[in-house]
Design brief:
Elements lengths: L11 H6 L6 H4 E8 L4 E7 L35
Antiparallel strand pairs: 1-2
Length: 81
């Protein structure tokens, strides 16, 4: 007989955070994704959130940079054997 898992399954964003750099989803929203044969393409949009360590500064937005493509390996922080 199979034992019922006591922990709840990961949400899609929680699972995604396992593959992205630590804390990235604190400052970006996932707005779209494309599943291709050999890769996933993720579209992230920056949140309008000021990190707490900069809250004492008077900052002014200068707009956004053009979108960029970041290529990364499948599993971060894992050594190849």
């Amino acid at each position: 007989m199979k034992r019922k898992s006591e922990s709840s399954p990961l949400s899609p964003l929680a699972a995604l955070s396992l593959f992205l750099p630590s804390g990235m989803l604190d400052y970006f929203d996932l707005v779209d994704s494309i599943n291709q044969e050999s890769c996933f393409i993720l579209y992230l949009e920056e949140k309008f959130v000021l990190p707490s360590e900069y809250s004492h500064l008077s900052l002014h937005s200068k707009g956004f940079f053009p979108e960029i493509e970041v290529q990364d390996f499948p599993i971060r922080g894992k050594k190849e054997w």
